[in-house]
Amino acid sequence: MVTGATGFTGGALAKKLTERGDQVVALVRKTADVSALADLGVSLVYGDISDADAVARTAKGCDIIYHIAAVYRTAGHPDEYYEAINVGGVQNVIDAALLHKVGRTVHCSTIGVHGDIEEIPSNENSPFNPGDIYQRTKLDGEELFANAMANGLSGSIFRPGAIYGPGDLRLLKMFKQIKRGFFPLFGGGSNLYHLSYIDDLTDGIILCGEHPAAVGERFILCSNEYGTLKDLGATIAKHLGVKAPTFAPPIAPLMFAAKVCEAICKPLGIDPPLHTRRVEFFVKSRAFDNSKARSLIGYQPQISTEEGVKRTIKWYEANDLL
Fold it and tell me: Distance of CA 248 to CAs 111, 228, 234, 251, 293, Å?
């Protein structure tokens, strides 16, 4: 069973599982585009992760549950919605796994639970420091799942780095700005950024679901390398055949503008044109140690940042997205 299968990560995972011969069932909303899943032969159960009965129906007869679904940072949602999906949805998965005696359940958390890291590189035992409602509810969901594992649930938890690769649209704006020749490195771009290429990530997720040593553990799944945001911009520019970003305006005015936008727009339920989290992208460091996953379950990322950027650009160009 895969939740979140109509999203980037869940969809890539469902594709990899079906292509190797597994039977996959996905819990999907009626409003979702399920054409790609249907083409793969994925069985579909319509419902929402916040609906305990729908989750239980989907889990019946499954050997492994991969819980990928979550609500990300979407302005306009009240805090209660994040709670219902990122915490309540986790409880529904736990209950379904226990009800049907599922062999293994894997929960997708986020490296965002560490927030603005102090240890470089950070690891699974580094302090938690969530900075917004998304990160706070993801941490609550992770701790809920960890408690279930401590009480007998056969499962594991993974925290992915910044997920990218063919099919990803979250980093598309950055690629487009660099191609146009205007990607300001607010604050200088010296903050660290750690990526997780989609094919490597899905390999790691499957290891969490199948490797005996994964039971009861938490893993950081990211590439073997990290670098500064400025370096990443230069790599993207190189493979787009354009000049590397160098313009580095100060961060303070932008952060002030973001806070004003949110203060005005959020009470009105309007998506702010500028978010503080987007500004924090330019200043917060993300650098992690994946050695636990490598040593304990044999996680072996194969795709370098250089190669991953090349493949991502190729997909963007093939789909006329740049």
Answer: 26, 14, 13, 9, 36
